[in-house]
Predict the 3D structure of the following.
Amino acid sequence: MAHNLAARINHGVEMLRQGNVAEAFEAFRRTLVFLAAGGVGVEQALGVVAPDNNNNNDPPQEPHSRIQPVPVANLFPESNDISSIVYQSAFRVWETETDHTILSLVLLFNTALIYHSRTLTRENSSFVQKALRLYQSVFDSVANTRENLREKSLVVMASLNNASQLYMQLVNHAQAVDCFDRLRTIIELVQQFRIVPDDFQFFLIAVAVENDDHDGRLFSAPTA
């Protein structure tokens, strides 16, 4: 069953890469509904209960390769505003992936990314709240420990980064700073892990931009 979930997620990512946002969203939505309906227990899916993988005979996979970024920059309008550093890749997984936590976190992030993209093209506050709720589900379900973050750090960092951008959009200073602080902490924890270099560099730059902006420009309210 988990293999089928991986295939559903990857189909959605491919549709997203091709620009078919509606079909991608429907693939992710159907899979979320399946999880919520009990096809996979919600507690187990989010890692509250460890999945039983004792019968998994698949070859071992390097942690950083189990979650693979796929650029989908066509989702977002071009912007020259350096403060809007949004991570614009969706995540696919190995077709043989059976870890329900990884599958669920990837699914939640990918769905959030679609809502996030719509916040920049449509004035609909519900999209912002839906994206934030899904991003938060990702980083709140994984404790900041080396063991839990080893295979999930990339999707957690992406969720924290993008949530911080949405909080800046809402001019919620405290929550944006909190996300950046948590992102810094995770970056420190994963220095020893083998993360895709370009993606890791992205988060280092995002944090550096925030660090250099002590005058409050990132968090200033938009002028009329």
